[in-house]
């Protein structure tokens, strides 16, 4: 039968998954699903700074290169994730021994090295990830603080990052990526102001990634309108990390299942998934939809939100769930 990727292709979009490369190497069923169901892949961890530059100036692209090769073999595009983030930085970098000017040089070097290494192989790069707090202020992370000290404008690293990435890989589409942009409010407004400003300064930004980590307890966001207003700035938009978590039942041994706590939650998950796909399909500039993982047994959610889970389209045994069939239907009738 048709895969999600096949159906999405007919609907005119890529349908991708974030891939855990350790699991890809060891779990044949997972590998089969990744290779057949999806037309785009994102490395869940192995293009992040702590993995690719574990020692200063010493690069290790082994795992990421393997995924890029897998993608080529399976005619998939690759979303690069990510070049600049406050998280998953190597210890040598966060040790606090660098001056602000050195940090700017380190950032320049890292972006240039990594984006050059993958030049021509990345469809969309998440150049800057999660620069904003939920209250719409800028996250005062290592990059912000360095630029603040150097130039009096902490946000300056963002424009630099896009310019350096563009120099290193002129054909990749360059994205700002963040969570909670799905909801109308201060954070989405701040991201809108940020990318509008970048565009007006001629910074080479091509798109905005809406991560889409949804939770049934918070209600379904005003997603389509938010996608559309960013698209109206002549930017691409993409759903980059979609999962829909909910509270789940506990097993007798204390572990958590991937069975939603109530039938109402189970139905909400299906509705959130279908509405999210429909929102992307309804916005012309949304051509890429990625789920943050494949199956519930390898999802990041239970490790971070105790008692929540069941966020993905496949269950803990890597079998398709009702939301899989619901999403397939939406794509089929697009
Ligand atoms: O690789 C080490 C391993 O050597 C060690 O034994 C093990 C022990 O904890 O940790 C392993 O590292 C883990 C890493 O994933 C690789 O599996 C980290 O502890 C763990 O924190 C890390 O979690 C990742 C998380 O980002 C970090 O913030 C998740 O897998 C990944 O799904 C998640 O992805 C993020 C996106 O990049 C950005 N948006 C939000 C999204 C979800 O948090």
TrEMBL record:
Using the record's annotation, list all stretches that form the GH10 domain.
Answer: 1-330
Q: Which InterPro entries match?
A: GH (IPR017853), GH10 (IPR044846), GH10_dom (IPR001000)
* Enzymatic class: hydrolase
Q: What is its EC number?
A: 3.2.1.8
Q: Which PROSITE patterns did the record assign?
A: GH10_2
Describe the reaction catalysed, as an equation.
Endohydrolysis of (1->4)-beta-D-xylosidic linkages in xylans
Instruction: Provide this UniProt record's keywords sorted from A to Z.
Output: Carbohydrate metabolism, Glycosidase, Hydrolase, Polysaccharide degradation, Signal, Xylan degradation
Going by the entry's taxonomy, the superkingdom of the source organism is recorded as: Bacteria
Q: Which family does it belong to?
A: Belongs to the glycosyl hydrolase 10 (cellulase F) family.
The entry's protein name is: Beta-xylanase
Native source species? Cellulomonas alba
